[in-house]
Structure formats: structure tokens, C-alpha cells
Amino acid sequence: MEERKKICGYYDYTVILTYIGIFIGFTGIVFIMEGKYREASICLMISGMCDMFDGTVASTKQRNRREKRFGIQIDSLSDLICFGVLPALFVYSISGKNYMAFFVSGFYVLSALIRLAYFNVMEEERQEIEGGKRTWYLGLPVTAAAIFIPACYVIQSELDCTAVMQIALIMMAVAFVLPFKIKKPYMAGKIGILFTGIIEFAILLLGLGLDV
Question: What is the rounded (10 degree) CA torsion for 115, 117, 120, 126?
């Protein structure tokens, strides 16, 4: 049955972090276009932080079936922008916009898109059968880019070798679609990821050895 709404979509607090993450991700893309790679890296990490906790926020409210399905879709669409398109453009731009960087970045975006679309299908089926929270991921989550890309940016700046980021992009792209299981991080895991992110964030803010 068609739901009568004054405006399409949902706008309660359960999706606010996802919407903020999308906006921050778009801001990062604009920074890349302006050649501000350090700022783009910071935007990528902030988007990752938003994604890390949006599911926790959403779980605090009892949602109907349509709201849950909307949450799955909007989260993956956000992930494609923030952790698919943004990192791909980052590497393409910082590598001098050459043909190799173009194909590597394109392969990365395609892999991220396939993974996210497949995840949506499998997650909707899982929720209909099992319900509850997911305890593992199949393949590397695309949100891993929020940690790996800034780290590779720091490394490539120190080594003055853009091939580092292209290699990292290829490895992540392959890992997105390989069917290996990764246990979903809970509080301890999230604290570890957050601590790593804080260290990277501090390095990026200080701009040590970075092209700014």
C-alpha cells in the first residue's frame, strides 16, 4: 500500500548521521577538485566516523519494515559517495590524472558499487529471515577506505610515490568482492579503529610531510 507523505524520504534522528556523512563526503570531493588533499582526507575520515555510529543511533528506535529498508538503501548510497567516489577521485587526482590512475580508480568504484548492491540484496533477505543485527561482513567493507586512504596518503607523501595509493586502491577493490568473512567490530573494535583514526587525524591536521 502506498504511504501518504508530504515529502519523500525519512528525516528523523535515525538517519541524521548518514545525511551528515553524505554532505561531508561531498565536501571532500569539492576539496579534491581544488587540490586540497589534506582537507579531503579529513572529510573522508569524518564521514567514516559518521558511518561507524549511524547504525547504533538507528537501533535506538523501533522502525517499521519500510524505514529499515530505506535505512539499508540510504546507507549504501552514502557509502558509494563517501567511500567509493571520493577515494577514487582522490587517487586519480593526486596521481596526476593519468590513464593508469583512471582505470585503477574506475575499477575501484565499480567494485565498491557491486559490493554495496550485493550487500543490499543479502541484508534485506537476512533481515526477513533472521532479524536482529549482523555479526559479520562478507568481504572488506567499503568504509575501510576511511582508514586506509588517509594512511596511504601520509605514506606516499613521505616516499613521494603515488603508486602507493594506486596499489592500495586495487587491493581494496579486490577485497571488496572476495567472499571472506570479517567479524563486525563491536565497542572494543570501534575504539581501536577510532584510536587509529585520531592518530591519522592529528598527523593530517599538523600536515607533517604532506603536500598542502
Answer: -60
Tens of pLDDT, residues 74-133: 999 999 999 999 999 999 999 999 999 999 999 999 999 999 999 888 888 877 777 667
Domains contained in the chain, number: 1
Instruction: Give the residue among 112, 134, 135 at the shortest CA–CA distance from 123.
Output: 134
CB atoms closer than 10 angstroms to residue 178: 11
Residue of 193, 148, 120, 131 whose CA lies nearest to 44: 148
Contact (CB, 8 A) for 162 and 115: no
* Residue that the C-alpha cell 563526503 belongs to: 25
Query: Is the pTM here over 0.85, yes or no?
Result: yes
Residue 52's CB is within 10 A of a number of other CB atoms, namely 19
Q: Is residue 199 part of a domain?
A: yes
> pLDDT > 70: what percent of the chain?
92
Identify the CATH number of the domain in which residue 142 sits: 1.20.120.1760
Whole-number Å distance between alpha carbons of 58 and 21: 14
Q: Do the beta carbons of residue 137 and residue 182 sit within 8 Å? A: yes
